[in-house]
């Protein structure tokens, strides 16, 4: 018979015979303590009350309080404490323990102040309770008071104080505690040494942590975890992996804390296969390890793998948490998969985590990146405590979807809400200024971020300004900014300049940008293709041929341009002039019918955009059978005559002819088309585009 069942039987016996037995009460209350059985303790107390039994000492009542504290039964503990005729230091300490266990910090501090006397247990309980609830500075004040009143700190005291110092990164007080530990001769205590290692690692003193770790003679799994997680927190994933290798050699078996940290280290160092191997070797995986894997896949561009792993997680009956859901939503955002994004949103609602700030911010980002800014705003409005991440997701979402003035208005609302902008905020704001052609306003924001908010512009901010100047016909100003900026121009800077030069047909400066871009990114095909475009438009076919020859000589490969359309959770991918699809004959027939309808309405394919010196028929086929046109027609075939928007994604910038084509189609068939290219979203409605033909 199980001991806990025996305890129940013994309490049942008391009720069955209904007699007062002080010895039985004492024995049974000790059993309740031993098994932390709050339910039987409550029955035992009720039996004593019904029989009007009042113990001569506080022993039994103190033990009952202790059981209630361990079981988290605060109400039962409070009721018993309030009616006790006599209390001693053990009574008060048991009640402190109950408050600490349940996180009732206000009551904990109030009772501590009101106690007629205190001992080291009282101090340890309060310090640990405050530290565990994030009130680290209050915990440190109590520790100082403890010393002033002459109480000797114990190992538990030092561990709690170090925990408090770790939470607020209080290196100075932590070092003082370290000194006291040495003076007391407690440094050899493994429990304390683990806490010191963890403290130094969290405060960024990784070398000090490593020294303490190396001094430990009997390292346990907590010791290794403190050091491994410390390396991860300090951005040292390689060192983390080295420690993991040492740990395996030491015959210490890793636990799930070890595994989660090492998985993170594998992903940070790009060792995805090693992460997968370790994950599959673990038998009893917890939600943290599943979430770490999913998050790692998302961070390494393996969004499909993240979604597949999430499905396996559910099949294995592992309940996801808000961190899991947030990571999976992020994978849907990167894939621009509205179907799966909405599915995960529904899952979040069923779990009751959709209003969590982390999840809701991810949902705002997902709907924005799926071309649904209205749905993103609906969710944004439901967030009670909006963080800078929430505001940034919506500000960027508006800017990406052509709602640039809404983006700027929202920025002003954020300031009124006393939220300080960060660097990401200004990328959204500057992007909105680019799309609206607000050069002076963009300059004002750029200066504001430095002068008012102390944010040093990074290369993304400079790229925004170069784009802004270039689009407003101030290429010289853009080049001057590149020359004067304190950061070394990278491929983003030169690519941005090249893009605006192409937009303005400025061959001279485009050649300058292309030359620099080739130097910093030798295998990037963009400078060759962009110059070829410009040369072709101006009829410089010899220069086009030279570009092709140069690409071949330098072994620079042009990456494939493709488009895809998502239908009922399935993705259909197309390349230019693609005839591999099983329904390609029907797709081309429908596309040619569509082109004839558009031509009758005034559409004329822009054959000048073809980069080959060929006849008109060849140019027609080259320009009319681009991947986004094929994806659009297939989407219309599959989605019938309804009003649901057709959603297309393209991995490069949409060409001018396809952009005009989409506008015509949206007007002729009366259906919204949402196209996301490498630059932004294009919402085509009734012959107009949200980008105002600036992209």
TrEMBL record:
SUPFAM superfamilies referenced in this protein's UniProt entry, alphabetically: TPR-like
Chain ranges of the DYW domain: 602-695
Pfam family, one: DYW_deaminase
Keywords (A to Z) from UniProt: Repeat
An example Gene Ontology molecular-function term: RNA binding
PPR repeats, residue ranges: 88-122, 220-254, 286-320, 387-421
InterPro entries: DYW_dom (IPR032867), E2_motif (IPR046849), E_motif (IPR046848), PPR_At4g14850-like_plant (IPR046960), PPR_rpt (IPR002885), TPR-like_helical_dom_sf (IPR011990)
GO terms of biological process kind: RNA modification
UniProt cross-references to NCBIfam families, sorted A to Z: PPR (TIGR00756)
Family: Belongs to the PPR family. PCMP-H subfamily.
Record's protein name: DYW domain-containing protein
